[in-house]
Design goal:
Layout lengths: L14 E4 L10 H5 L7 E7 H16 L4 E7 L8 H14 L8 E5 L1 H13 L6 E5 L2 H7 L4 E6 L2 E8 L4 E4 L9 H18 L1 H10 L13 H17 L18 H8 L4 H18 L5 H13 L11 H14 L6 E6 L2 E5 L4 H19 L2
Parallel strand pairs: 1-8, 2-3, 2-4, 4-5, 5-8
Antiparallel strand pairs: 6-7, 9-10
Cofactor: Co(2+); NAD(+)
GO biological process, one term: antibiotic biosynthetic process
Catalytic activity: D-sedoheptulose 7-phosphate = 2-epi-5-epi-valiolone + phosphate
Length: 374
């Protein structure tokens, strides 16, 4: 018997729209994206806090159009990003009786919600469309605009996951008005990440508005441009490499040590761990002569000015080396470590040593008062 070769291509198109007050009864953006109509049923996966703030508005929005919603409500934080939650969402989808193609799952919340709902959608009946409505800054600029879904497993962040972009994503910055300040800072880390790697103008805008960005919930003179430039830069990285066939990714800046740090520290949000990782990697770049003293201090000053941490007691040599080893496995046997060569440019290195990491930790410690008093 002869063998067979199957060749096919997957054409992927998904839409991200900026909207204002998405659950206003007069706003048709979500109704059009999800084809909301009389008699249809929708599973809405929502964060508990978001449900307490916006749940009634969500119900009224669908109800006004004759549609029925079944909610699955998640508790806060990474601790719920588990296989148990994933299977619970699938069971709730069965109970809701949603149809496979024309009744998409609606995810309303932060990155945990969109990751979980997206993975459930990718698996339910081998693929059910879903719509993302991110309500956090990290969701607006990072977690809810790509193709990745995930759950945590076996003590590791995002160890199980799929590539399954939402059919539509609706970015509504008005949710930031009710976002706690710490979670604004959490999202700011991802904006700093892409600015350091790709966009010196964005970095300068962050510096100009840094004193007011958190308290104003990004409603500063340059707030809209900051979000737009961040999303544009991130999508520019993702579009050409959506399935991550190329494992050298500047979007991985701040994501070499941070996954392990976030899981083992226990008291860090994702963006806080990313900020600490960025600080360490900038110190490595500086010690290698890749990053000037002025650029290093600007990064530290911006991170600390935004209220983000740049070090943590969990960053022991053992933890950092273990984190790097796991990342090397994740990157198929290579470090592929993105390091800045200036504000807005980067290179990849493959040979960072334990001695360099230890020296970088010392640099980070020395820079704390300097950056804070700059």
């Amino acid at each position: 018997m002869n063998g067979w070769t199957v060749r096919c291509r997957q054409d992927v198109t998904y839409r991200i729209n900026a909207v204002v007050d998405v659950f206003s009864p007069a706003n048709e953006a979500l109704a059009e994206a999800a084809d909301v109509a009389d008699g249809k049923r929708y599973l809405v996966v929502v964060d508990r806090t978001v449900d307490s703030l916006y749940g009634d508005r969500i119900d009224r929005y669908f109800g006004a159009r004759g549609a029925r919603t079944v909610k699955y409500t998640l508790g806060p934080g990474e601790r719920v990003k588990t296989a148990d939650s994933l299977l619970d969402i699938a069971r709730t989808a069965d109970q809701a009786g949603i149809r496979r193609r024309c009744e998409p799952i609606i995810a309303v919340g932060g990155g945990v919600v969109t990751d979980l709902a997206g993975m459930a959608a990718s698996l339910y009946r081998r693929g059910t469309p879903f719509i993302r409505v991110p309500t956090t800054l990290v969701g607006l600029v990072d977690a809810a605009i790509g193709a990745k879904t995930a759950i945590n497993h076996n003590g590791h962040k995002n160890r199980l996951g799929t590539y399954f972009p939402a059919a539509h994503t609706l970015l509504d910055p008005t949710f930031l008005r009710t976002l706690p300040a710490r979670h604004v800072r959490n999202g700011m880390a991802e904006i700093v990440k892409i600015a350091v790697m790709k966009d010196a103008t964005l970095f300068a805008l962050l510096e100009a508005d840094s004193a007011d960005l958190v308290e104003s919930r990004i409603a500063t003179a340059h707030g809209t441009e900051i979000i737009e430039r961040s999303v544009t830069a991130m999508l520019g990285e993702l579009e050409a490499n959506l399935w991550e066939h190329e494992l050298r990714r500047v979007a991985d800046f701040g994501h070499t040590f941070s996954p392990q740090l976030e899981m083992c520290a226990g008291d860090l949000l994702h963006g806080e761990a990313v900020a600490i990782d960025m600080a360490l990697c900038c110190a490595i770049a500086h010690l290698r002569g890749l990053l000037s003293d002025d650029a290093l201090r600007r990064v530290f000053a911006l991170l600390q000015g935004l209220g983000l941490p740049t070090e943590h007691e969990a960053c022991t040599s053992r933890m950092l080396l273990g984190a790097l080893a796991d990342t090397v496995r994740h990157r198929d046997g290579h470090q592929h470590l993105p390091l800045p060569t200036g504000i807005g440019s980067a290179v990849f290195v493959e040979d960072v040593t334990p001695a360099e990491i230890a020296a970088a930790r010392d640099t980070v410690r020395r820079l704390q008062p300097i950056a804070a008093n700059r």
